[in-house]
Amino acid sequence: MNWIIPIAVALVLAGGFLFYYYRPKKQKRTESIYTHALNAMVQGDTRTALDHLRDVVKQDTSHIDAYLQMGDILREEGNAQAAVKIHQSLTVRPNLTNEIRRDIHQSLALDFEQIGHLNKARREAEIVLKLDRKNLWANEFLLKIFEDQRDWDRATQVTKSIQKLRQSQDPVQIARFLVFQGMDKLEKGQRKEAEAQFQKAIKTAPDFGLPYLRLGDLFAENRDLVKAIENWEKFALINPEDGRYVYSKIESALFDLGRFSEVEKFYERILEKDPSNLNALAKLANVLEEKGEHSNALNLVDDALTRNNGSIHAHLMKLKLSLHVSKPHELSNQIDDIIQLLTNPDEK
User: Fold this and answer.
1) What pLDDT, on the 0 to 100 scale, is given for residue 200?
2) pLDDT in tens, 55-107
3) 347, pLDDT greater than 50
4) Quick one: what percent of the chain has pLDDT higher than 90?
5) To 10 degrees, what angle do helices 118-131 and 136-148 make?
6) C-alpha torsion 226→232→233→235, nearest 10
7) What is the mean pLDDT of residues 212-233?
8) Considering the entire predicted model, what is its pTM?
9) Rounded to whole angstroms, how far apart are CA atoms 316 and 151?
């Protein structure tokens, strides 16, 4: 019986040696392949990366990161449906950390967005926020979704969250959504509620022009032309480049009120703030011309040309005003100047 113990010891040692020698080397092998896959992704070789990732999951079905990357690559290649299947299969895996769960639902949100399932994309992003309350990506993703869905109330709330996370303030962005809410209420015939939203937008961002424009239009529809003019002028002063959209409205309203003589003063206020505003200058020149103040109109245009001789607009204005007072050769010279500007873009 004494021979049994040595044999048993020998068998144990032999088993231990065989286990050590033939032990699975999957972990080292799969991580090496996964590294190759990541390198291929960095180089933009998604085909090679996808092949490596498939090798990884064949050898190690518990490699969550490899599955995540596979789905992301498929989505980027336009196969979001396949990406959804891969990413959804990961949600039922046990013992996932919150960080991994966050990454899975973030990928699913992007998958659903690509195939146009915005409600599902929104729900996935909301899950990300439940897992990570201060997740900036999820807030910005939801903002884009709410904008696409014209859900301005939620867009406003998410914008406030984003600005808080970024530790920045942009009242104009919030005011813009308030205006959009007002426009939606207008479409539903809720005029008082719309006016309240526009006023709230002005209070939020007094230097933002859009609510003044919408409020002016609303007052005009209600035939309250005095308030309409007041708001249109504020819009024109805040947005000099876009002010031309309300010039005719203001002129018509002043005419209806019997106050057409105030048109000249309006354009003078615009030019006082923005002397280079050629649209306002052209309107003022027309007003002066209609009043018979031809010389003043022409002097106004000449003054504009001294500041901006390359403006085709100003040259055309001068040509128009000169038609009845200049000699043919003078008009011809003006036309030549305009042709020169048109054929030489650098001088426009």
Assistant:
1) 96
2) 777 888 888 888 888 899 899 889 999 999 999 999 999 999 999 999 999 99
3) no
4) 48
5) 160
6) 150
7) 95
8) 0.72
9) 46
Which residue stretches of 188-243 are H helix? 191-204, 210-221, 225-238
pLDDT, average across residues 108-118:
96
Q: Among candidates 180, 233, 191, 229, which has minimal Cα distance to 209?
A: 233
Buried b (16+ CB within 10 A) or exposed e, 105-123: bbbbbbbbbbeeebebbbe
Dist CA 325 CA 303 (whole Å): 18
Query: Which structure tokens are listed for 220?
Result: 């005009």
The larger pLDDT score, comparing residue 135 to residue 40, is at: 135
Q: Which two tokens mark 187? A: 């479409």
Query: Six-digit token pair at 150?
Result: 């014209």
Contact 108, 74 (CB under 8 A): no
Return d(Cα 297, Cα 294) in angstroms, integer.
5
| Cβ atoms of 334 and 323 closer than 8 Å | no
Q: Which of 305, 299, 251, 260 is nearest to 278 (CA)?
A: 305
CA-based Rg of the chain, rounded to a whole angstrom? 35
The pLDDT mean for the chain works out to 81
3 state DSSP class of 151? coil
**pLDDT confidence of residue 319:** 54
Query: With left for phi above 0 and alpha for psi between -120 and 50, is residue 345 left, alpha or beta?
Result: alpha
| Percent of the chain's residues with pLDDT above 70 | 74
What is each CA distance from 219 to 214, 224, 225, 243, in whole angstroms?
9, 5, 6, 18
Burial class (CB in 10 A: 0-12, 13-18, 19+), 45: middle
